[in-house]
Write a sequence for this structure.
């Protein structure tokens, strides 16, 4: 039996598994219909999750996803999850359904022997400023003699999935790594965790734009709204995370960097929609549990 998390979400935000009975007539004034959804946690399944994972990777890298062999990358990610025994998917219609969220790890050591991963690592290095500590740390993984062992955390979800589901996913993942390491499983001695995410730029005066990210989390009360709203921009220049949990996680990051997507189209004053950018953050593995506690407390 999979682990389950039960929560309430707006009916318009997510595929429904079960619909509650119509509410009484005295609730007709409500503008949001609430339902209960069972979120089931499953191990990644290469035979089922391949297409959905490729879709999530394209969402993560936007137009730059064309720079990689997304199919090979997705296959490697799922294969690594199976070999490590680490990773979780979130589904609502059973194990054969598409995941709404995905998290697992990819070991970035010895990338020369991993043709699906090496182009991604080279891409990430190219997005970092020359001679920056962040870049130097990532470059160090290319050396077989490096003492650093970095795990890429592949964490992506539908933007309208309730944010409260993410702290348990992260905690299960890191707990699985620590358990495997204590049991002596080879290759689990990670020194750092690397996360790739997306941010968007919202200029002053654009706060009333109705965008997809406004549906990022359900807000049944003003107290909840304050908890999940990204209060602090991701760096400067009015940048905000698509996924609020990453905002709180970054408070514990060793380094962060916002980068332009290589294939993004030039923007001008007539450009429509928000401007998307990539974001990287890296964490000390020995302090990851404390970082997750900060995120969990912020989203409680």
């Amino acid at each position: 039996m999979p682990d389950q998390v039960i929560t309430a979400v707006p009916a318009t935000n997510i595929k429904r598994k079960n619909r509650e009975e119509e509410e009484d007539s005295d609730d007709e004034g409500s503008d949001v219909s609430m339902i209960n959804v069972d979120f089931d946690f499953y191990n990644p399944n290469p035979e089922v999750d391949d297409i959905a994972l490729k879709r999530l990777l394209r969402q993560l890298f936007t137009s730059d996803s064309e720079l990689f062999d997304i199919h090979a990358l997705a296959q490697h990610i799922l294969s690594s999850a199976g070999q490590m025994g680490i990773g979780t998917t979130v589904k609502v219609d059973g194990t054969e359904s598409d995941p709404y969220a995905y998290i697992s790890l990819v070991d970035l050591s010895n990338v020369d022997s991993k043709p699906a991963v090496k182009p991604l690592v080279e891409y990430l290095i190219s997005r970092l400023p020359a001679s920056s500590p962040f870049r130097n740390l990532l470059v160090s993984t290319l050396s077989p003699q490096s003492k650093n062992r970095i795990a890429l955390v592949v964490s992506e979800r539908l933007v309208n999935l309730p944010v409260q589901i993410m702290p348990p996913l992260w905690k299960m993942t890191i707990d699985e790594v620590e358990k495997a390491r204590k049991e002596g499983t080879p290759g689990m001695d990670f020194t750092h965790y690397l996360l790739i995410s997306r941010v968007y730029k919202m200029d002053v005066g654009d706060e009333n734009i109705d965008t997809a990210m406004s549906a990022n989390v359900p807000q049944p009360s003003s107290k909840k709204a304050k908890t999940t709203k990204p209060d602090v921009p991701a760096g400067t220049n009015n940048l905000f995370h698509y996924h609020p949990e990453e905002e709180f996680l970054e408070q514990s990051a060793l380094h962060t960097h916002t980068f332009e997507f290589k294939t993004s189209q030039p923007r001008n004053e007539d450009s429509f929609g928000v401007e998307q950018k990539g974001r990287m953050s890296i964490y000390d593995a020995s302090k990851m549990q404390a970082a997750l506690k900060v995120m969990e407390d912020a989203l409680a």
User: Anything to note?
Assistant: Residues 4-27, 205-233 have pLDDT under 50 and may be disordered. The longest strand covers residues 192-201. Residues 3-15+34-299 form one domain.
